[in-house]
Amino acid sequence: MHVIVGRKQLAPDVVQTEVEAPLVARKRKAGQFVMIRISEEGERIPLTIADSDPVRGTITLIVQAVGKSTKQLNQLQPGDTLVDVVGPLGKPTHIEPNANVVCIGGGIGAAVVYPILKAYKDSSSHVTSIIGARTKDLLILEQEIRARSEQTIVTTDDGSYGMHGFVTDALKKLMNNGKPIDLVIAIGPVPMMRAVCRVTQEAKIKTIVSLNPIMVDGTGMCGGCRVMVGGKMQFVCVDGPEFEGHEVDFDELTARLKSYVEFEKEAQARYENICGVHCGLES
């Protein structure tokens, strides 16, 4: 059992949870993730390790509640437990020291890009960060990202905070400033990552994306997380989660992400009907 030792609400439906997992905390590197289960009957959920404290033996997970299991996870409180925390899984981020790097986080993607930009900052790279959300209330980790970046640009779709527009608008302005960009790392919703890759492909800037498809075991055995990259089949859990964005087949990835939408909706509806007002959910 892994005890939850801290919980913080970051935004509507987004919760930061600190969990006891000393072995994972000591070994994890930027870009890696864990597979967690809330209970013996629960599904496995892949979650990026946003941060860790090897001395305390804890890892930090940031979760957006989008379905039954993630809503259930975000209802847990300090003192509650998770039956499984397996990891660290996936390949760590390949860090290129002394680079001019632009790190882009869209929505919950800010939680995934945060440990990566920290690793680049620690490698003496110049880090510019762009974080975006639909509206101000949905922005997360702004202060933490600012503290680790030479420059941070915030965008909101509705103009309620920061620059009015998309992360791609901010990226284009940076590209027009004249200073060569060595690498772009873009993490967030699939449409956002695709849009960033279209912008950088024209300029021939290397771009890395982190993918989060359907995943069952996290060890490459089930094949559920397969994606096409550069015309070859890859498994995100063992070959990724990071890939060269210009080679990702985003059309196939989008289609696969929709495979179980109806089942997910049914599971969520059943959970909300059972949980009702006791969990603070609308039935």
Provide a brief overview of the structure.
The protein is of the alpha/beta class. The protein is built from nine helices and 17 strands.
CATH uppermost class of the largest domain:
Alpha Beta
Helix content: 25-40%
Q: Please, what is the average pLDDT? A: 90
For the terminal residues, how far apart are their CA atoms?
30 Å
Shape, per Cα inertia axes: globular
Low-confidence stretches: none
Largest sheet: 7 strands, mixed
The assigned CATH architecture of the largest domain is 3-Layer(aba) Sandwich
Share of residues in strands = 25-35%
**Overall number of domains:** 3
Give the radius of gyration.
Answer: 18 Å
Enter the CATH topology name of the largest domain. Rossmann fold
Spatial order of strands in the largest sheet: 12-11-10-9-13-14-17
Task: Give your account of this protein's structure.
The structure is a single chain. With 283 residues, this protein is an alpha/beta fold. It has 3 domains: 2-89, Elongation Factor Tu (Ef-tu), domain 3 (Beta Barrel), CATH 2.40.30; 93-210, Nucleotide-binding domain of ferredoxin-NADP reductase (FNR) module (Rossmann fold, 3-Layer(aba) Sandwich), CATH 3.40.50; 212-261, no CATH class. The chain contains 9 helices and 17 strands. The strands form 4 sheets. Strands 12-11-10-9-13-14-17 form a 7-stranded mixed sheet, with helices on both faces. It has a 5-stranded antiparallel sheet with strand order 5-6-2-1-7. A 3-stranded antiparallel sheet has the order 4-3-8. Strand 5 (51-53) and strand 6 (58-64) form a beta hairpin. Helix 5 (167-175) runs parallel beside helix 6.
